[in-house]
Write a structure and sequence with these properties.
Chain lengths: 257, 262
C-alpha cells in the first residue's frame, strides 16, 4: 500500500483497531458487563432500538447546532468589537475570562429554573460554553495586524474601518475557522451537560435515564453516537476551514519550508 | 527654491518605559522635488520615526514638516511606502496586492469599480517594469523574497505618488538580489521622476542610489552631514567598484563611527 492511501485510511484503521482491542479485552479479561460493556453490545443495542437512538441523536444534534449558531453570531460581533479597540479589549477581557472560568454545569440549574426543562437550557448552555474561543480568536486575528501594513494604509488616508475590512477581517478568518472546530466540540459538551440535568430528550437525557436503570449497553450506545456526532461536525468545520482559508495553509507551509 | 519635503527643526519626544525618549532633536532636512535622498545613521537614531513623521502618521513635538508647500497635519495620502518586510496580503493575488492603494486613496477609490480594467492593465504594466510580467495571478507565497519586494515597490507606486518613502526595503535580501533591486528602483525613479526618501543602513546602497546622503547622529537624531553624490546618471552597478565610490562609502563610515562614539 502506498503511503498516501495509508494516510487516508489510517483514521478508519485506528478507529476499528480501538474497537477490536476493546472487544478483545472484554473477552480475554472476562470483564463484568456492569463495569464495561463490549462495543458489540453497544452496537447491538443501537440496532435494536435504532428509532429511539435516532430520535435522541437528532435532538442533541439540532440543539447543539442552534446553540453553536448563536455562539458564532454573538462571537463574531463581540470579537469584532473587542478587536476594534484596545480599551474595549482591556475592559471586557477580565469579565470574559471570569465568565469562561465558571463551569457551565453550575449554571444549568439556573437555566432550568428560568427556562424550564427542555431544549432551551441546553441551547443556552451550548451557546455559553462555545462562544468564548470564537471571540478570543477573532480578536487575536484582528490584533495581530502588522503595524507596518497599517502604516502603509493609514498614510494613504485609510480609516479604521478600511483597515478592518481590507486587512483585519481577512487576516482573522483563519483564526475564526480554527476556533469553530474547538467551539463545535464544546457546544456538544454544553448540550449534553444540560440534557443530563434537565431535559425530556437528547443523548444526554438518554444517558442519564438508561444509566439510572443500569441498561449499560444503551449508555455506551449513546456515548458512541455522541462521539460520532462530534467527529462528524468537527470534520464539517475542518472542511469549511480548508476551503475558505487555503491561503493560510499554503503560506504557513511556504514559511516553514 | 522651496524644498519639496521641508522638515524644519523637528523634535519628537515620546513616553518610553523609563521616562521620556527624545527620538529626534531639532532635525532639519530639505529634499528637492525629484531628488533621491538617502538617510543613513547608526541604529536607533530615529530614521524610521522620520518616515512616520513625513507621512503624517506621527505629529512632531516641535517644529514643522511641509510637503510641496503644505504643512503636514495628518496622513499625507500622496506618499507611497515600502518596508523591509514586503507585507503582502497572502489571501490576495499579486495583482490585487498591487491594486490595494487604489482601493483606499481618492480619487481612485470612488472610481475603483468602474475603472477596474484600466487599473489592472496599469498594475500589470508596472509589474512588467520590475520584471514580473505574468506574475499577477500568482499568490505572494509562491514568490521569492526578492520578487515579493518588487511587488511591494509596485504597490507603493501604483497610485503615482509624488513621494516614495522607503524604510530599509532591501535589508532582508541576499546581496545579489539586493543589487538587482537597486537597479529596479533606479530605473523606476528615472522613468517616473518621483521624490524618494530612502532610509537605510547600507552605505553602498545609499551611495549608489542617492543624489544626496543625509547622515543622522545617534539619538536624539538630527542631521549632522549632507553628502552629495557626484556620479553621473544613469548610474551603472560598475560605479560601485570605482575608487571614488569607495571613498564616499569610507567617509560615511567614518562619520557614522564618529557619531556613534559621541
Amino acid at each position: 500500500m502506498n503511503p498516501r492511501t495509508l494516510e487516508k485510511l489510517s483514521p478508519w484503521l485506528f478507529t476499528i483497531a480501538i474497537f477490536l482491542v476493546w472487544e478483545l479485552a472484554c473477552i480475554v479479561f472476562k470483564v463484568n458487563t456492569s463495569v464495561l460493556q463490549p462495543p458489540s453490545a453497544a452496537f447491538a443495542a443501537m440496532f435494536k432500538l435504532w428509532r429511539v437512538f435516532l430520535y435522541h441523536s437528532w435532538v442533541t444534534l439540532w440543539v447543539t447546532m442552534v446553540g453553536f449558531a448563536l455562539a458564532v453570531g454573538f462571537g463574531i460581533i463581540l470579537g469584532l468589537v473587542v478587536g476594534w479597540s484596545r480599551a474595549i479589549y482591556r475592559g471586557l477581557y477580565p469579565v470574559m475570562i471570569g465568565f469562561n472560568t465558571i463551569p457551565k454545569v453550575a449554571i444549568v440549574p439556573l437555566l432550568i429554573l428560568w427556562f424550564g426543562i427542555g431544549e432551551v437550557p441546553a441551547i443556552v448552555t451550548a451557546f455559553l460554553i462555545s462562544f468564548f474561543p470564537i471571540v478570543v480568536n477573532i480578536a487575536t486575528g484582528l490584533a495581530t495586524t502588522e503595524p507596518e501594513l497599517e502604516d502603509v494604509l493609514r498614510a494613504l488616508g485609510a480609516g479604521k474601518l478600511d483597515i478592518m475590512l481590507k486587512v483585519g477581517i481577512p487576516r482573522a478568518l483563519p483564526y475564526f475557522f480554527g476556533s469553530l472546530k474547538i467551539a463545535i466540540t464544546l457546544a456538544f459538551v454544553g448540550t449534553v451537560v444540560s440534557e443530563t440535568l434537565g431535559a425530556n430528550a437528547g443523548l444526554g437525557y438518554l444517558i442519564a435515564l438508561e444509566g439510572a436503570s443500569f441498561r449499560m449497553a444503551n449508555v455506551y450506545a449513546a456515548l458512541l453516537l455522541l462521539a460520532f456526532e462530534g467527529v462528524l461536525m468537527y470534520a464539517v468545520f475542518a472542511g469549511i476551514e480548508q476551503h475558505f482559508t487555503k491561503w493560510a495553509f499554503r503560506s504557513q507551509m511556504s514559511a516553514a519550508g | 527654491m522651496e524644498a519639496f519635503v521641508d522638515i524644519d527643526g523637528v523634535t519628537l519626544k515620546y513616553r518610553g518605559a523609563s521616562g521620556d525618549i527624545v527620538a529626534l532633536q531639532d532635525a532639519t532636512l530639505k529634499v528637492q522635488r525629484g531628488e533621491f535622498a538617502a538617510v543613513v545613521g547608526p541604529s536607533g537614531c530615529g530614521k524610521s520615526t522620520l518616515m512616520r513623521l513625513v507621512t503624517g502618521l506621527h505629529k512632531p513635538t516641535a517644529g514643522t514638516i511641509a510637503i510641496d508647500g503644505k504643512q503636514v497635519t495628518g496622513p499625507v495620502k500622496m506618499a507611497g511606502m515600502a518596508f523591509q518586510n514586503a507585507n503582502m496580503l497572502p489571501w490576495r493575488k499579486v495583482i490585487d496586492n498591487v491594486l490595494l492603494p487604489l482601493e483606499i486613496v481618492e480619487p481612485h477609490r470612488s472610481q475603483f469599480r468602474s475603472k477596474k480594467a484600466e487599473f489592472r492593465t496599469k498594475a500589470e504594466q508596472l509589474l512588467a517594469t520590475v520584471g514580473l510580467a505574468g506574475f499577477g495571478d500568482r499568490y505572494p507565497w509562491e514568490l521569492s523574497g526578492g520578487m515579493q519586494q518588487r511587488v511591494s515597490l509596485c504597490r507603493s507606486l501604483i497610485h503615482e505618488p509624488a513621494l516614495l518613502m522607503l524604510d530599509e526595503p532591501f535589508a532582508a535580501l541576499d546581496a545579489f538580489t539586493r543589487e538587482e533591486l537597486w537597479c529596479v528602483l533606479r530605473d523606476l525613479w528615472q522613468r517616473l521622476g518621483f521624490t524618494v526618501i530612502l532610509v537605510t543602513h547600507d552605505l553602498r546602497e545609499a551611495a549608489f542610489l542617492a543624489d544626496n546622503i543625509y547622515v543622522m547622529s545617534a539619538r536624539p537624531g538630527h542631521i549632522v552631514q549632507i553628502k552629495p553624490v557626484p556620479f553621473a546618471r544613469p548610474r551603472d552597478l560598475q560605479v560601485t567598484y570605482e575608487k571614488e565610490f569607495g571613498d564616499i562609502v569610507m567617509e560615511l563610515r567614518m562619520k557614522i563611527a564618529q557619531v556613534r562614539q559621541s
